[in-house]
Amino acid sequence: MAVAASPGPKTGQLLVATRSNSHDQEFAQTVVLVIYADDKQAMGLVINRPTDVPLKTVFPEVKTAPRGTDRSFMGGPVVIDIKGLLRSRTKPDDSMALPVFGDVYVIRSKTALVRLVGQGLGPDVFRVYVGYAGWSMAQLQNEIDIGRWRVRAGDARLIFDAHPATLWPRLLQTPGKMSK
Fold first, then answer.
1. Which of 3, 61, 109, 178 has the lowest tally of Cβ within 10 angstroms?
2. pTM score, two decimals?
3. Strand ranges for 57-103 from DSSP E
């Protein structure tokens, strides 16, 4: 009897690297928010790797220094793109803001990112990510099946956690809604 493959992760879920993923320097001890997934591919942002790179370096066109969010995050190994995560009770006006889950949106437009950085929103509602992670769905599902990732429901409190650098060990210690 063949065992059916489990469905791949969905947009809005978190991938928590297991200790068996420690050999992979790009993903060791990471927590990834899946911002897009279909039957062929998945894209995510590493949410627990803050950098020392200030946003005024990422966005030199912002003339005033950001008041709230003052640093960027390393979103993943594919560093050809900049995205933002915004927590908002209302859908942002920008057509480049896509819902991830609940009140969390991914911002893909540089114009919108510059505008948000200039507003000086705090890191509890807005963060900027340089780079992203991407997989074919078959590759990611295989990594989950062999135990490199645990899948957890998305939670805005975790995404905008005040201490992102310590998020990974806390999630590994937290029993709950994780698979594999």
1. 3
2. 0.90
3. 71-74, 78-87, 97-101
Ordered domains of the chain (ranges, CATH) = 14-173 (3.40.1740.10)
Q: Average pLDDT of 44-55? A: 94
Spell out a b/e string for 13-23, using b for 16 or more CB atoms within 10 Å of the CB, else e. bbbbbbeebee
Per-residue confidence (pLDDT) for residue 2, from 0 to 100:
43
- According to DSSP, the β-strands at 104-107 and 97-101 are antiparallel
How far, in whole angstroms, is CA 160 from its chain's centroid? 10
**Which residue in 68, 88, 163, 79 sits closest to 129, CA to CA?**
79
What are the helix (H) ranges across 42-136?
A: 55-58, 110-119
Q: Which two tokens stand for residue 14?
A: 């978190």
39/158 Cα distance (integer angstroms): 26
Q: Is 50 exceeded by the pLDDT of residue 1?
A: no
Q: Residue 62: its pLDDT value, please?
A: 81
Do 27 and 133 form a contact (C-beta atoms < 8 A)? Answer: yes
